[in-house]
Fold each of these.
Amino acid sequence: MKKILVILSCMFLLVGCVLDKTPKNATEDLFKKYQKLDDVVLSDLELTTEGSDLTNKKQKEDYMKAMKMQYSDLKYEITDSDITGDTAVVTVNITVYDFYKVQKEANEYLKNNPDEFLTDNVHDKDKFMEYKLKNMLDASDRVDYTIKVNLEKEDDEWVAQSFDKTTLEKIHGTYDYERE
């Protein structure tokens, strides 16, 4: 009897979740996909990596590792939801690795130590990129951002819209917060 009650309770919870889908739920599902390294998220990341200026397989692998670390360790808190008809805006506070700081410090290091990145007395972009990627993989400093997730109701389901460039930079931890 207990098993039947447990099964019925679980079925009720599942049905209740489907019937009670809100913009907050949809936003939470979206960020869980990042944290769980969902296939769709990784597919988008691979497309981004292929279109980048990373020149060899190891650089691409290291970049993928750094971004997977970023996504899986992403922390978020939904703080507000504003629904107007079939559109909604959900406010989310996120905490990510500060890759902007890593890149800034790497550029400063290059400026002060250019000889470390020479091959045959010529600046070696690959050496420098490998240095930056290693530092990204070793990153521990984190940064907080507030982002807005825009959603639209499509066929009775809330769907997050594509992120703009600034929001993606914040999720990736590469946003230049010093320009604010």
Amino acid sequence: MAIPNDKMEYRRLGTAGVKVSVLGFGSWVTFDNQIDDDLALECLQAAHDAGCNFFDNAEVYAGGRSEEIMGHALRELGWPRWSYVLTTKLFWGIHRDDPNMHHTLNRKYLMQGIDGSLERLGLDFVDVLYCHRADPNTPMEETVRAMSDIVASGKALYWGTSEWDADEIRHAIDIADRHHLHPPVTEQSQYNLLERDKVEREYARLHADTGYGNTIWSPLASGLLTGKYRDGVPADSRGALAGYEWLAEQLTDPSAIDRAERLRPIADRLGCSMAQLSLAWCTKHPMVSSVITGASRPSQVVENFDALDVIGALSDEVCAEIDAAVA
């Protein structure tokens, strides 16, 4: 059964006025690699039924197919455009044979990249356009001006960063302020119980000074925090996908598995899964606007969103116990 919408919490995206569900849904790895159009639609509907209004994508996911699949599903579902927040990301590119169209944030790429994403999604605009990585080879002012112009054109309503250093984000905000341009409003970085330093240390002063938000990815450490890799790599998991051998190595690291397994007794005591405990924990950080979940089947979506019932159980004492367990 889907979780009633009144259980969902909605938070401001950094200092922006728009609000996003504290649990979001993203398509990395799963769309096209693990699930087809029909299953993607079912997963989107399951997330929506749980009160999710934040859906994440990227140009590079499955070489553009992920955007196409999500766009097709949204058209089939027929949701009003005002009822959800949709994001995508640019940097890696899908035209790898052209020097101006991959691994860059130059103006040419960004202006043409957003048009390609909108065409694949079948939308007039995205709510947030992220710079998927920083680009040391393009002047920061060129990138900021291009992103601001995309926002001014209405093709994106906000823009953000993904896996940028705190100094790079500050530089972008300063340029935007100096030239009266649209500034970035949110980061998207990896954050989970096993990967914490960037959000908790590097971004601490940035968040305190600017209120910069974060829509975090990999809250389950690509599944390691679910406990399902304790006995090896399941055949139907992302760790078994061709081309993701690098991920399988991380997911089978004995030390990481040992740290994750220390959460099992805590989850058992609270009457939840390790995944639900880990997702709920991520929502406790004040910089986190939304926790992006992923799933390869609707039942997994429902299970993940049941983490909403766990958030209230995470007292300061329980959080301290969790910190000690994975330290």
Amino acid sequence: MRKYWARLGFAGVMLTLVVPSMVAQQSPAKPSARDEMLPGPGSAWSLAAVGDAIITRRIAPLETDADPRFKRMADVLRAADAAFLNLEISLFRLSEFQGWPEVENGGNWELGPPEAATDLKTMGFDLFNRANNHTTDYGVEGMRMTNVLLDEVGIVHSGSGMTLGQASRPGYLDTAKGRIALIGLATTFTPMSRAGEARDDVKGRPGLNALRINRKYEVDEATRASLAKFARAVGVNVPEDANAPFRLFGNVIEPGPSARVIETLNKRDEERILREIRNAAVLADYVIVNSHSHEPGNDSVVPPSWLPDFVKKCLDAGASTYIVHGPHQLRGIEIYKGKPIFYSLGNFVFQNETIDPMPADHYELFDLPPTALAADLYDARFKGGASGFPSSPVWYESVVAVPTFKGREVTEIRLYPIDLGQKSPRSQRGTPRIADDATGRKIIERVAKLSAATGVTIRYENGIGVWKAAGPSTMP
């Protein structure tokens, strides 16, 4: 008969226990409620997740009895076992900065006070993505200073580093419910911000963890003829052969059945990211993957065709959830094999009208004189609030998403609607609070409508959106 042996040492005496194999082969007892509270793959745990944080003013002092809606939001964040956001800004003082603003930027040069990191941590955030189109607005030095600040404050971050290897690696957060890995990446980024691999003979390049998108432009015969005519008129050499490709505005134009853009993922980038997820799934209990993905554009509430396929590869590789940020407005939610996908969580802090000072390049863009100041710049950019972000509430209405998991499978999602104050004065606009009842219902109904396309039903209950798993898990 097969036997299992266990040896116990006590006071110098060795005891040998003999256990019949028929006992050892019995089904293990169901985990108790206490077991579910212990760290490990079977734990019940929750994550508070939000979108972009462009924070240029102090927010922690707002948490007082005089501001109950802000306080309620902070309570939601701190009640979760971990809280995540995308930090879409550099945090340091210009007086301590030895670098300069770069020519390439993510739309403007985003810079906030270092105290903002402490404010966000005080609110409960402990996981930050650092890969986005503003990672290197102030160059590698600005990226490095911000990362050092986060390390000093004790915030786990990922998505950027001094080599591609460092930028690709997860950040790890140890919690009472288990070890969480965070992998950050960007599909929307400035060319100079992409990190590079190290070789024996050449240093690696600092930057962000990039997933490059290959774009192929096809045009029908009539469209090609029009583009070719224009190209020749501006001095571009275009082959006479109607089936030959040519370059225009830095892109290759090829003949095809219709005018379209074909997008595919860079295979080296994709495999590197999936490899890191598989590794993190072994070293941690839960893996969060997030990407900064504006594609196909901020005005679209539908993700690009390649994104859902890539997201599901990440979940199959071991991720517990995938979170998208970047479009600055809400998109829908999908549940894939018991794992939640958030296609965009919009904005969390959107204080992009109080960045001051700004480089001279930004003033030149709007043909402003050297005497112009930040208020003049934002008046010109947003036409006094009549255009751009301040003109619509869609950019200032979002949610704090709180999925609850049993191990790596989601059992419930709660969506707490937040209002960033689109109608507030510039000095206050962009700061989040729990939305009032009317605004909150509108926000949840919007998310529900966007999520219905993937079969996810979200109900408005007691001021929040709620999704619950249909029944017992069918996951292995």
